[in-house]
Amino acid sequence: MKLRTKLLISRSVPDRNVNDGSAAAITCDYSHQEYDLCTINGSTLLDSASSTIFAVGPHTKDKYHAPLKIRPYPRKSDKVAMSGVKELNLIEAQPKLSCAVTHRTPALVFSAAGYTGNYYHEINDNFIPLFITINSLFPNRDVTLVVTEGKLWWFQKYAELLSAFSPHRSIISADNISTVHCFPSATLGLIKHGPMIIDPKLLLPNPKTLLHFRDFLGKVYTKSGTPFMYPKEKKKPQLTVISRTHSRAIVNEEDVIKVGEELGFSVHVFEPSRSTPMAKVYGVIHGSDVLLGVHGAGLTNFLFMRPGSVLVQVKPIGLEWVSRTYYEKPPKYLGVEYLEYKIEVNESSLLQKYGADSLVIKDPGAFQRKWPHKRVHWTEQNVTIDIARFRKCLIKAHEKAKIFMSKVN
């Protein structure tokens, strides 16, 4: 079965052509900054026990081919993330193994290691790339997902979403099978366009955007695609506060809640955990008129927000680039209104810990150039919000929310 690929630069394996001049069985593209992608254009055998995938065919007999290798996780330039991703071997050979399970659809193999465990990375490094890859290589076709290094909790948390990508096939946890599985072909790796980005120009002739991904999520997490219904008697806009109890927590969260209520919000504090069902997360966020939180993984839930609703990002010191890249620009593509409250030095816990003359405070960019200094502004910083100044931001959010509610109702 021939795969439709959109590789910018394809590196075919040398000296591996079949005698009739057809293309090499294994083709790998290592040219991208964030991901590698390999394809096996013919019979494929997966031996999970040896982390080896075989390209099997008549041309493999009596001829040795050095294996190719791939770590199928799309953060190739991040050594920390990739250090925990298992390397897979791709070999053109006739193994002394037989198929215990034979599948009729191509395999798409990827890793759930790396930074999995962080909600932002699960969406950005697993599911957006999975959406891109399937729409790029397998549009309107069945595919069997083969996941390496997937934890039980991860499969449980994302069971509905994984099934939506491959509705007619079982999801294979490669680390939990003891038998040999065979496929008509295979793709290893996931295509990534950038942080929280889907570039339609790279998906021609089937262009998709972040809007399509948001709609896909909506179909997964609403019953039978039924639109979310809102009570007509609802008069106060709902402000949902994403609460954090560790780094980047709002120390005076109660004061934030109080001023929100004073301004006319119905305030709901939400701290989803790893075990919180995704359908519940979707329902809470989709029903919110304003979503408020300090920069962090919880703001990834903007993908569940309705066009016209409001995202308020509290931006700590030293996190300007990631705040802008992850949660300022992408929501605008979905029609979500964006506001931000930028923390001043006296509102950051880092001031008391490191002092005003520290590079941590005076020049965070210079301080972060070396690892592990880079993590200080993420892991050691909490914020105590200046309520008088913050009130102005919430007034704007309330005005936008009322406009939004008037259009919805």
Summarize this, please?
By secondary structure, the chain is of the alpha/beta class.
What does this structure look like?
The chain is an alpha/beta fold and 409 residues long. The chain folds into two domains: 11-208, no CATH class; 238-408, Rossmann fold, CATH 3.40.50. 30% of the residues lie in helices and 18% in strands. The strands form three sheets. It has a seven-stranded mixed sheet with strand order 1-2-3-13-9-10-11, with no helix packed on it. A six-stranded mixed sheet has the order 6-7-5-4-12-8, with no helix packed on it. Strands 15-14-16-17-18 form a five-stranded parallel sheet, sandwiched between helices. β14, α6 and β15 (266-270) form a beta-alpha-beta unit. α6 (253-262) crosses α13 (387-408). The longest helix has 22 residues, at 387-408. The radius of gyration is 24 Å and the shape is globular. 39% of the residues are buried.
